[in-house]
Each structure stands twice: as structure tokens, then as C-alpha cells.
Amino acid sequence: MARQIWRPGALLAPVPPALVSCGTVDAPNALTVGWTGIVCTHPAMTYISLRPQRHSYSLIKDSGAFCINLTTRKLVRAADFCGVRSGRDTDKFALMGLHAEKASQVSAPLIAESPLALECRVQQILPLGTHEMFLAEIVAVDVDESLIDDSGRLQLDRADLAAYAHGEYFALGQKLGSFGYSVRKPGKRKKTRRFVPPKAPTQPGGQR
């Protein structure tokens, strides 16, 4: 396979066009980030990387909290809008028909239209260059009941999630396999993960 060697760049795809909510329920803001992911299982840890110039940067830094809301096919237009407009002079929730909901553990609001959200509490801020990484603990997972089957298992395929790759949005399509299928013995059923509801909050709103 012939290859060209390019200069270093952030060319990793696909990534989630995640809707990150911050601020408060009364004064919510949302932005879209592609630089996010999971960095640890126990404790559950995630991150988002933001430019310090972003309006949401100071909101998250001051509050120490944000929520990552998964983007569905129906939310792609909102995700695109929230990624190119600033909350300094735009009420993104109002213009995109989004609704802020109170989270169980943090002060940042959830986006009601997203079927799954991670409530995150900032643990560390790492300056990296153009962006700074907010390393955060996932303190609760909010799952719409429509994604949970009768046995209590999470069926994330029902969410109709979207992906982002090189400037374009895509709907997740054909299933190609499941985790571990390459080594699974013929006839052996794969294990399915059971959704475990988060513990009840110890503080109303999870204020820090």
C-alpha cells in the first residue's frame, strides 16, 4: 500500500460530535466537542479538550462540572449549530429547541433531548497547547428508559447515534460484529452488559 507522509495533525475519525452542556439549569449553555473519550474504567474517567477562548471554558472551569450528552440523528443539526455559534451572544437552547434538565450529581444541566448523558466532575485541567484538557470523573450516567429492555440491559443501538469524520456527520449504520467476536467459540452466546443505575445523590444538585 503506497502512503504519503503528512505533517502532524488531528486526523482521527470517526469521533462523537458530543453535545457538552454546562452552566446551570436556569442559564444553560451547550457546545459541541469531538475531542472527548474515556480514559479510565475504575474510577470512570473522561475528558474534553477546549480552547481557552471558548465561552464554555470559563463556565466549566468555574463550576467544575459539565455533562456529555450523546448526539442522535435528530440532534445532529443542534450539534452542528452549537459547534459554530458562541454562547456569549446566542441562546443555543432556545434557538435549537433544547431543554435543560437538572442533573443528579452536578450543577451543570442535562439536555433533555439526548437519551444518554454522562455527569462529569472536573478533577484536573491540563494545558496542552491550543487546547486545555478537562480531566473529569463520571459521577452518574443518565439513561432514557427507552434504551433499556425488559431484562434491564442497555440497548444503545436504539439511540440512533451519530458520528463525525473529517468535517461530515454520519449515522451509525451496519453492525459488523460485537466485542470479542473474533475469538468467541462457535455457538457460544456473547455476554451482554446490564445497565446499573447510579447511586442516589448525596447532595442535592451535587454542588461543589
Structure at a glance:
It contains 3 helices and 11 strands. It is mainly β and 208 residues long.
Separation of termini? 53 Å
Second-tier CATH architecture: Roll
At CATH level 3, the topology is: Pnp Oxidase, Chain A
Quaternary form: single chain
What percent of residues adopt helix (DSSP H or I)? 10-25%
Tally of discrete structural domains: 1
What is the mean predicted local confidence, pLDDT?
91
Rg (CA only): 18 Å
Organism: uncultured Anaerotruncus sp
Pfam family, one: Flavin_Reduct
Keywords: Flavoprotein
Region (Disordered): 183-208
Protein model, in words:
Residues 185-196 have a biased composition (Basic residues). Residues 183-208 are annotated as: Disordered. InterPro entries: Flavin_Rdtase-like_dom, Flavoredoxin, Split_barrel_FMN-bd. Belongs to the flavoredoxin family. The strands form three sheets. Strands 2-1-5-8-9-4-3 form a seven-stranded antiparallel sheet. The chain has a two-stranded antiparallel ribbon with strand order 6-7. It has 208 residues and is mainly beta. A hairpin with a 4-residue loop joins strand 1 and strand 2 (28-33). It has a single domain (18-171), classed as Electron Transport, Fmn-binding Protein, Chain A (Pnp Oxidase, Chain A, Roll), CATH 2.30.110.10. 29% of the residues are buried. The longest helix has 9 residues, at 55-63. The protein is built from three helices and eleven strands, in the order ββββαβααββββββ.
